[in-house]
């Protein structure tokens, strides 16, 4: 019902919008909504003719039915019953994201607060469960209610919610994630702890299954998702028989070569920290996903540049950031050496190592901009500043070479440039890849910074004065 921008952005489907100004959600009271949705479902059924389930969606959406006065929960249950009937007639078991009924009733927050005391969770449920029970007769019984939790499946609020569904005769399935809102590559050891936690609790409590989601919100290359996928397969089949260390060693053995099982080649976890730091190393805050919507992104989003009238001031202001940049470069240099060695020894899946290498190169390159600005800031006269600015110009040239090479590697398995007549949607979730027709979305902060340097960085003190 929601997440429908890929359909509702088109003029022919705008009459089906719940809010005429938003491409996010269908109007659940318009019969034509179901004509379109059932047609989409049929595409999925035809693509997977032997499937058992049909995931109908339903998450992160609040509708009004074009201001009919019905509550969002009423409208969602009207929609859910219709699509569940369609699934049943099609020979499939419907699966539904459960978050919105829980959010609309007021018991959502405890599921994502693992430190919330048990008594507090119980009090929230006690205050709100009556309202949930009023709608219980309208909850389809042929549906599996999917309890997604990508960060804290162990939270008491999460397990209590799943138990509530079971206690009231409803089927429940968990959903974990191998990738959520992480840039360039999955983080937190491919989210292994949460995957294992949810797998073990699902086995222990007898859930109706567990799903691994792999969200593309920030569009890392899919080759880098596989460690999380394999961890999920291992944990759902075998529980915790393998320790994380044993699993990672086995992963390298199976994916690349038996000679790469040794810990000396365990670079993926080491790459996570500089990748996380890369995202905002040039920015005033967590703003990479929001630069495109800013009126003046160079000023609102990017950090300031050195001022030739106050040499050394910039280096003091950004001292901690420069230290981080130096460590990023040092770490990515070491990781690059490991990947190079692995590429020589790997018997299979060499393309994944190519992608990792390009990620590592980008993450190691961006902090070099900060070091170049520090050298410019600490120059003692106009001549030295001119030399340092020329080095920055060379750095820009090197960046475009890196960008071109990264695009070449990525384009082997993905379409990186959209057609010019492709319609971008309203980007409700600030998806980087949805903000450009070209692959420039991956490098937008760097491109902006080089433009800012070119246009604003003055090396002559006299001209400024």
What are the SSEs and their pairings?
Layout: H1 5-8, H2 31-47, E1 53-57, H3 72-89, E2 93-97, H4 99-105, H5 118-135, E3 144-148, H6 156-167, E4 171-179, H7 188-205, E5 210-214, H8 226-238, H9 244-255, H10 268-278, H11 297-300, H12 313-317, H13 319-345, H14 350-377, H15 382-410, H16 444-456, H17 461-464
Parallel strand pairs: 1-2, 2-3, 3-4, 4-5
Question: Overview of this structure, please?
Answer:
The chain has 465 residues and is an alpha/beta fold. The chain has two domains: 5-258, TIM Barrel (Alpha-Beta Barrel); 269-464. The protein contains 17 helices and five strands. It has helices at 5-8, 31-47, 72-89, 99-105, 118-135, 156-167, 188-205, 226-238, 244-255, 268-278, 297-300, 313-317, 319-345, 350-377, 382-410, 444-456, 461-464, and strands at residues 53-57, 93-97, 144-148, 171-179, 210-214. Strands 1-2-3-4-5 form a five-stranded parallel β-sheet. Helix 3 links the parallel strand 1 (53-57) and strand 2 (93-97). The model has no long low-confidence stretch (mean pLDDT 96).
Class inferred from helices and paired strands:
alpha/beta
Number of helices: 17
CATH class of the largest domain, named Alpha Beta
How is the biggest beta sheet arranged?
A: 5 strands, parallel
Beta fraction = 5-15%
Q: Care to count the β-strands?
A: 5
Average pLDDT, to the nearest integer? 96
Shape: globular
Spans where pLDDT lies below 50 across 5 or more residues: none
- CATH fold-level name of the largest domain: TIM Barrel
**Termini gap:** 60 Å
Number of structurally distinct domains: 2
- Assigned CATH architecture of the largest domain: Alpha-Beta Barrel
CATH superfamily of the largest domain: Glycosidases
Strand order of the largest sheet: 1-2-3-4-5
Radius of gyration: 26 Å
SSE sequence, one letter per element: HHEHEHHEHEHEHHHHHHHHHH
Share of helical residues: 40-55%
């Amino acid at each position: 019902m929601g997440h429908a921008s890929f359909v509702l952005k088109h003029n022919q489907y705008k009459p089906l919008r719940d809010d005429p100004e938003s491409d996010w959600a269908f109007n659940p009271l318009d019969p034509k909504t179901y004509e379109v949705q059932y047609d989409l479902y049929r595409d999925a059924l035809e693509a997977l003719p032997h499937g058992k389930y049909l995931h109908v969606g339903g998450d992160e959406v609040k509708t009004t039915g074009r201001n009919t006065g019905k509550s969002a929960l009423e409208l969602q249950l009207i929609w859910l019953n219709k699509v569940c009937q369609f699934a049943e007639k099609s020979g499939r078991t419907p699966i539904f994201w459960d978050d919105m009924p829980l959010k609309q009733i007021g018991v959502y927050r405890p599921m994502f607060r693992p430190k919330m005391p048990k008594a507090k969770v119980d009090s929230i449920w006690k205050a709100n469960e009556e309202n949930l029970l009023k709608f219980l007769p309208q909850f389809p019984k042929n549906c599996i209610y999917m309890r997604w939790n990508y960060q804290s499946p162990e939270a008491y609020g999460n397990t209590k919610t799943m138990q509530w569904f079971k206690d009231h005769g409803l089927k429940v399935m968990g959903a974990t994630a191998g990738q959520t809102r992480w840039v360039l590559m999955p983080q937190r050891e491919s989210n292994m702890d949460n995957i294992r936690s949810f797998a073990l609790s699902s086995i222990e409590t007898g859930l109706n299954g567990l799903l691994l989601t792999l969200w593309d919100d920030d569009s890392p290359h899919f080759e880098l998702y596989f460690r999380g996928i394999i961890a999920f397969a291992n944990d759902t089949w075998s529980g915790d028989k393998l320790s994380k260390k044993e699993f990672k060693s086995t992963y390298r053995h199976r994916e690349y070569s038996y000679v790469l099982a040794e810990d000396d080649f365990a670079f993926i976890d080491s790459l996570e920290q500089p990748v996380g730091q890369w995202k905002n190393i040039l920015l005033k805050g967590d703003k990479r996903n929001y630069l495109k919507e800013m009126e003046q992104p160079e000023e609102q989003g990017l950090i300031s540049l050195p001022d030739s009238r106050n040499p050394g001031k910039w280096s003091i202001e950004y001292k901690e950031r420069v230290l981080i940049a130096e460590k990023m470069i040092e770490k990515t240099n070491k990781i690059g050496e490991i990947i190079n060695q692995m590429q020589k020894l790997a018997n299979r899946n060499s393309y994944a190592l190519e992608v990792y290498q390009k990620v590592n190169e980008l993450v190691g390159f961006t902090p070099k901009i900060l070091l170049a600005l520090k050298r410019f800031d600490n120059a003692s006269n106009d001549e030295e500043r001119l030399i340092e600015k020329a080095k920055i110009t060379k750095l820009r040239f090197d960046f475009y070479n890196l960008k071109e090479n990264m695009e070449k590697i990525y384009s082997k398995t993905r379409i990186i440039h959209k057609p010019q007549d492709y319609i971008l949607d309203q980007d409700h979730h600030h998806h980087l890849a949805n903000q450009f027709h070209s692959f420039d979305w991956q490098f937008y902060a760097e491109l902006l910074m080089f433009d800012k340097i070119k246009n604003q960085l003055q090396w002559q003190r006299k001209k400024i004065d």
